[in-house]
Amino acid sequence: MKNFSCILVVGSSGQIGTALMLESRSRGMQTVGIDLRDNPWEASLTDLKMDFLDYIPHEKDHPTDLIFLATEPSAQRLEKNPSINSKNYRDFDHAAELTKNYQMRLIIISSRELFGLSPHEVSLYQAQKLYEQQKKDFETRLFEMGKQGYKTGILRVPIAFAGYDTDLERLPRLVPRWCANIIKGEEILIEKDKEIELILVEKVAKMLVNLLIRERGSFLKEIRGAKISLKALADLIRSVAKDNQNKKNEADDMLRLGIKKTLAALF
Q1: What is the pLDDT of residue 162?
Q2: How many alpha carbons fall within 13 Å on the CB side of residue 92?
Q3: Is the CB of residue 99 less than 8 Å from the CB of residue 150?
């Protein structure tokens, strides 16, 4: 891969980070993963276990692409603990400065369910929560950097899911509160006509690696997933929970398996 000296994945122990590290390395690309924690699925994917704010690349061998995934994935935890939000912003500021100083391309994966594809639609979006405001601010910063001549990349994705996920709150913001209720056997109210869009995280990783190879300048792309109604998703959770009534501690694994099987059928 002669176009790359190195790809730095900031947040390599998360769901998308794990899939991205595996995909890029399977293609022979030099990829370095950095995270505060060890990767729970594959230890070798966290090369640098450190606070990203302390990271400075080597002068002679620094990354050509910095993929910034170091943000809190749970909207609920972000709302409850604003200090997490402040840390996310400081990390993003550090990423922006590094990419400017070392002539790297700064890339994020953002939420297609929040915005339209154009920068103008992002600017018009009225953020209601910290999670939404953070996504909007980061995208806006990248658009501004692009105007200044710096290379940036944004890949818009729907809700990504895969086996590299142990956090039920990564489901849409409406779904987490269902999970505990359904597993307990309680009745819930569903918006029958509302749909969400899910995508396998491996597909997101493959798309991003393709973009890294094909697009050497700035890019703004989106990837589509498979639609499923909230009612169908609730029925799926309910059926899985019912079949495993005596295994409550395995609820996370059950739900992930159900989601993956549903997506496999839809695709």
Answers
A1: 53
A2: 22
A3: yes
